[in-house]
Amino acid sequence: MSYSSHKPLLSRLGLFSLLLVLLTLFAACGGEATASNQDNSGKPKLSLKELRLGLIPSENATKMIQDTTPFAKELEKQLGVPVKLSVAPNYTATITAMSAGQLDVAWFGPFSYTLAADKYNAEAFVQQLQPNGDDHYYSYIVTTKKTGIKTIADLKGHSFTYVDPASTSGNLVPRYTMKKNGLDPDKDVKGTFAGGHDASLLAVLGGKADAGAVASDVYAKLLKAGKFTEDEVVIVAKSDPIPGSPVAYRKELSQSDKQLIQQAFLNVKDTKALDAIATKGFTAATDSKFDLLRSIAKELHLDVSKLK
After folding, report:
1. Angle value at C-alpha 237, between 246 and 145, nearest 5 degrees
2. What is the mean pLDDT of each run of 10 residues along the chain (308 residues)?
3. Which of 8, 175, 206, 289 has its CA 20 to 30 A from that of 194?
């Protein structure tokens, strides 16, 4: 048999060898990629070098960082990477930071979350539980005895502190409460924004505002800290239950990282870490839980694009 009669067979053998080499190389590359996403015990690990966690300014920024640090340290143990905390000057700045890729995860209020979700596709993955285990909290409208304010109708003509334009319990719900009771929240009260729930309550206690809005959990925290006594405050209105604050990640994270981050939050059980952020823990969250806030915003005709 001549050489030419073997040529097709040799060509096929050469092609087969080349394919075998390529498959081996791809397998090796895949093995290295898998290994890079696993720790020494073979468990999946986060691809991020650090987790950037943003907080909305419900209280003084420095104090929020201090209070949240014990929880962040416990979260670091779960994730295996450092957790970097930051507090933006306002709610909208937190949303903007996430949309710009400056945050991986952010702790939102329910309404500010809907803004982040609807505008930038942020995804809620856990919901914060109250210290008693409830998955909801309330919005209070408060005043002091010296103002003589006893009902929502009595608020007319008085100064009022809202918290932030994107705050659920500090703006959205109080406005809705006023509207349901026949008041125009833009015209019937002299409204200003305090910037934080603590600042709103303290403005009322200090006589800088006749009445104001505050979240029930911040109210309870400041009461426990001795910032005021129950006798000093009159709760004029208590809202219907509001779903607990969600934590959301930016849409660009890998599915693997999203699952690891969610599980890390759910796995934090250390009492001191949870007490530091006044929570019993977390439960898995879905976007639909916050549709009620979208409905309220629509009923109030809020132009969310102008919220700052």
Report:
1. 125
2. 42 47 41 46 84 90 93 96 95 92 95 93 95 94 97 98 94 96 96 95 97 95 93 96 95 96 97 93 95 93 66
3. 289
